[in-house]
Design a protein that fits this description.
single chain; alpha/beta; Rossmann fold; six-stranded parallel beta sheet; elongated
Length: 327
């Protein structure tokens, strides 16, 4: 996988690093960012992913002489629009939003447009509206890679005639659709059938624990699970352990928290497609600062996903700790 510097090269261009020019692209942005105030609207700070993305935004804004305030929408579209209105009333210079789902983003974009405030979208996506740039992980490809790892592990145990269950993030989110599509593509290629699918609403470990308990009861042939975000994966693991199915059902995940490192090393999680939220936060803030500097950032900025498994976890750990965990 590319290192952090190589990812920066992908975005900025190899030629800019020649002759000590690595800092040149951001000089104008730094001047334009001095004193600028950003607002970051996040779905829910209960998930480590959003806290880490917020940190990437805050660190980048601060490094360039600006600031960022984070608003927690508590997975409520109503709270999200109230947060947007509060940020607009405080005359922030720019809004970065990770919407509660893709259909709720246009209302925020419209309100910001009326106030003349630019918006960058960090993950999840929107069904419409105007924005400066959209920073997104390659969800479909990452989930496909996780699916391949799970299918391979199931086949190695002779379990590929069994079924899989999915606990997805909201399928009203574009990234949820992409993760599910990528994972099921890998399952279809392997000839493994889907037994059950539940969509998260509260995004808690307890919610997913209940989903998985129900799946295990209803589908005794279940041999694999795919949980589409970090903390809820721990709920799935608890469900497997409490039902004594941890040795007969393989668990795959998406996103990553520090707990995942030993769980992957021990084989309790087969693989996880780890987005890089700190890097996403950096890219989101950089896109906004480029806009302030009069530049035109890419309309979509794709951040790669690290598919981490038992074979590469040691090699990837230094990058994961920085760009996934924000340490």
């Amino acid at each position: 996988m590319p290192s952090i510097p190589s990812l920066a090269i992908t975005r900025r261009g190899l030629g800019l690093l020649a002759a000590g020019a690595a800092t040149v692209p951001f000089i104008g942005a730094a001047r334009a960012a001095s004193g600028k105030r950003l607002a970051y609207l996040t779905p829910g700070l209960d998930l480590p992913f959003w806290r880490t993305l917020a940190k990437g935004i805050e660190d980048t804004a601060k490094a360039q002489g600006g600031s960022s305030t984070t608003y927690d929408s508590h997975n409520s579209a109503q709270t999200q629009i109230q947060n947007a209105q509060d940020a607009i009333a405080k005359r922030v210079d720019g809004i970065i939003i990770s919407p509660t789902d893709s259909s709720t983003a246009p209302a925020v974009l419209a309100a910001a447009k009326r106030a003349g405030i630019p918006v960058v979208i960090a993950d999840i996506g929107t069904t419409g509206g105007e924005y400066v740039s959209f920073i997104i992980s390659d969800n479909e490809k990452g989930a496909y890679g996780v699916g391949q790892q799970l299918a391979s592990a199931m086949k190695a145990k002779g379990w590929d005639k069994g079924t899989v269950g999915l606990v997805t993030i909201s399928l009203a989110r574009n990234n949820g659709k992409a993760r599910t599509k990528g994972f099921m593509h890998a399952m279809d290629e392997a000839g493994i059938k889907q037994a059950a699918l539940s969509q998260m609403q509260t995004y808690t470990a307890d919610e997913t624990l209940k989903f998985v308990q129900d799946m295990l009861t209803a589908h005794p042939d279940l041999r694999g699970l795919f949980i589409e975000t970090d903390q809820p994966t721990l709920g799935a693991l608890r469900a497997l352990q409490s039902s004594r199915r941890q040795d007969s059902v393989l668990l795959a995940a998406f996103d990553g928290i520090p707990d995942f490192i030993p769980l992957i090393e021990q084989g309790k999680i087969v693989a996880s497609g780890m987005q890089q939220p700190y890097l996403m936060g950096q890219r989101s803030a950089e896109a906004m600062l480029d806009h302030f500097a009069g530049k035109t950032p890419d309309k979509q900025i794709l951040v790669p996903i690290l598919v981490v498994d038992g074979a590469n976890v040691k090699q990837e750990e230094p990058t994961v700790r920085k760009t996934v965990f924000g340490e």
